[in-house]
TrEMBL record:
InterPro entries: AWPM-19. The chain crosses the membrane at residues 12-33, 53-73, 85-105, 125-145. The keyword Membrane applies. This is Membrane protein PM19L-like. Signal peptide: none annotated. Keywords: Membrane, Transmembrane, Transmembrane helix. It comes from the Eukaryota. The keyword Nucleotide-binding does not apply.
Amino acid sequence: MATGTAGRGFLRPLLFINFIMYITILGLAGWSLDKLIDGESHRHLGGRNTSTGYLVIFSLMTGAVGACSVLAGLLHTRAWRSDSLASAISSALVSWALTALSFGLACKHINLGNRGRHLRTLEAFIIILTFTQLLYLILLHAGIISSRYGPGYRNYGTDYGAMSHEAQKDSTTTEPPDA
């Protein structure tokens, strides 16, 4: 196995699972928001407690940002470079923060009770996804620490400035032209 590719075997299935779960959260939260707007919350959502609206809105944000985070992670597994690792980590961190907020709202929603089966399913997906997204974030950070699990932050010898390092060295060591 080549150096730095051990993490790919862990990341791809986890990204697939997270993507399916984020899309499911988007579907359930979108359906629940539609029922809340139509005023059908008592019939379909099992009544309404005070945290239902907040749970649905935060779940929609979590699903949208999480799905985009998974796409950034898929691009990273394809490129497998340190610059794609940085973008995957930053989007995964924002996604996990929103998922953790939704997790807190789901816990409050469970505590208040009076919820239907669709909202119970949404709560279950959010709770499971909080831990799978955290596992994904830990695996990405393992890529920084060890080159076995990811590309790490290394200098690949590429210079992005107007002048390369050697050109700068040469320009400082040469004598000025005779005038």
